[in-house]
Amino acid sequence: MHRKTRFNPRPLAVALTLVSGVASAGVLARDPYLQKVGPDTALVAFRLAANCSPEVRYGVGAVSEVARSEASGRVHAVVLTGLKPATEYSYEVSACGLKTPVKRFTTAPEPGTRRVHFAAVGDFGTGGSDQKLVAADMLARKPELFVALGDNAYPDGTEADFQDHLFAPMAALLAEVPLFASPGNHEYVTDQGQPYLDNLYMPTNNPAGSERYFSFDWGHVHFVSLDSNCAIGLSSAERCSLADQKAWLQTDLAGTTQPWKVVFFHHPPWSSGEHGSQLTMRRQFGPLFEKYGVDLVLTGHDHNYERSKLMQGDGVASSGGIPYLVVGGGGAALRAFSVGQPSWSQVRDNKAHGFLDVEVVEGVLTAKLITTDEKVLDSFTLRKDLPPVEQPPPADALSVTVEGERGVAPHRALFRAATSSDVPVTWDFGDGGSAEGMTAEHTYAKAGQYTVTATAAFGAVTRTATSVVTVSAASGGETGGGTDAGPPSTGTPDDRPSPPTTGTPSTDDEGGSGGGCAAGPTAALLPAAGLLVAGLLRRRRASQRP
Ligand SMILES: [Fe+2]
After folding, report:
1. 89, 142, 216, 500: least buried by Cβ within 10 Å?
2. What does the pLDDT read at residue 518?
3. How far is the CA of 121 from the centre of ligand 1 (A)?
4. What's the 303 CA to ligand 1 centre distance in angstroms?
């Protein structure tokens, strides 16, 4: 799947030099880095300094699980599966009799989860001090994922550039924060980005199975990474085409159900930096962004920070619109702007390195440009209305319904339990009686107020639910009227005529016109409509008498 065969392992002595000062020195030629982390999976990639059979030990808390690499040689990518979403895992790599320090990462939340924290920056891959400062600041904030905007490995995107200018200087960050990267023009210098493909493990959810452009969900944010190099003609047709990428993007954006959509790539549609606006990206992809409600576009290429106003087409939107950002201060030397600040440019700066820290909570996206001197250079908020979340019932839910909450003794009531899983239910009727089963029927002999308790055991967890049944005396009781009956539409068990042995008052409508009749079980539980019909019948019979 991944074209790793082009990797030319370095001599061991060189490899050891690469990791000098790193805790895993002597074990790995490249420290572990996290790729393709999802709700239940993660890929741990690393490179050995010598040939042996490595394994990744991992777990929640203790590293009690083991996943062995199936690869031979020194290039390894171990996939962890069966993980729990939004859960912190510890892991270490064990190889050649040694092991790396324990690192930690958090799996993606379930798609749709309305809380996401990510970081984004481009143009960092120098191996210099500014890149390391930005990476350290990013790690200190511990975003859930790192979105890289291209020019990840200067100057030419070679194997050595990736090692020396991406993996070595950002090792601590990449070991604990999963990287999702777009290719920049400097990655395309070498074989149209082939080392980028060889060194990174990106999603391949497009018809070409290409890692050059892809999408994924993280919580309630749909992320799309485009290959702007391909789009502006830097790729040969058999490797990548603008038409294929556009067709895929349209299908992808039309198909997502996540409320937030963030698209990132390298060449900026709007920029007043050294390179300026990339009009092919604006005009080929902007209409799709607008049609499908993209909320935010993140780019790099120019070595500065710039945020546009809300844009539509070739100008500022009269309503709606998309903010386009250049976040190109990741480590490369900052550069002068090419022109004075245009009217479409909301904020711009070329004095500070820094990264964009973004939190998306429910319908609010808050982004801050955090500089290496710990200042917030820019901050903005996007808002949208989200529908209420439908809460699934808890796994151990229990509820009860009662037919016949009120009645006259002897009063019979029917009970039903509803549980979220098939578990035994026991009933305590509150008068000493009990039963088992999802439904139960019980007759109360005496007047009183009874608390009925249903109990269900969900493994080690026990849940109870209660209801109250009120029973009145057979005659001269405190209730007795039709208004004490249950809801007319439910049809309580006591709608039926009373058993003859109960000695209830007569139900004869002629002789039972006194108050005692109304208090009888039948009358007491007659629906209101039934009482009305009974009254009409009484009047009709009376009028038919001579
Ligand atoms: Fe660039």
Report:
1. 500
2. 28
3. 12
4. 8
Which has the closest alpha carbon to 32: 22, 20, 21? 22
- Evaluate the omega torsion of the peptide bond into residue 207 and state whether it is cis, within 30 degrees of 0: no
Superfamily of segment(s) 118-152+179-223+252-389 = Metallo-dependent phosphatases (3.60.21.10)
* Cα 267 to middle of ligand 1, angstroms: 7
Average pLDDT rounded to a whole number, residues 306-323: 98
The conformation of residue 510, written as its DSSP 8-state character, comes to: T
Residue 328 alpha carbon to ligand 1 centre in Å: 9
Ligand 1 geometric centre to CA of 46 (Å): 26
For residue 149, the CA-to-ligand 1 centroid distance in Å is 9
In the chain, residues under CATH classification 3.60.21.10 are 118-152+179-223+252-389
For the ranges 422-426, 457-461, 540-544, which has the lowest average pLDDT? 540-544
Predicted confidence (pLDDT) at residue 537 exceeds the cutoff of 70: no
CATH 2.60.40.10 assigned to 1-107: yes
CA–centroid distance, 186 to ligand 1, in Å, is: 6
Report CA(262)–ligand 1 centroid distance (Å): 20
Taking the centre of ligand 1 as the mean of its atom positions, its distance from the CA of residue 218, in whole angstroms, is 26
pLDDT tens for each residue of 25-35: 567 999 999 99
Q: Is 221 within 8 Å of 366 (Cβ atoms)?
A: no
Per residue in 170-184, pLDDT tens? 999 999 999 999 999
Contact 311, 344 (CB under 8 A): yes
Tell me the two tokens of residue 97. 């009799």
Superfamily of domain 398-544: Immunoglobulins (2.60.40.10)
Burial of 36 (0-12, 13-18, 19+ CB in 10 A): buried
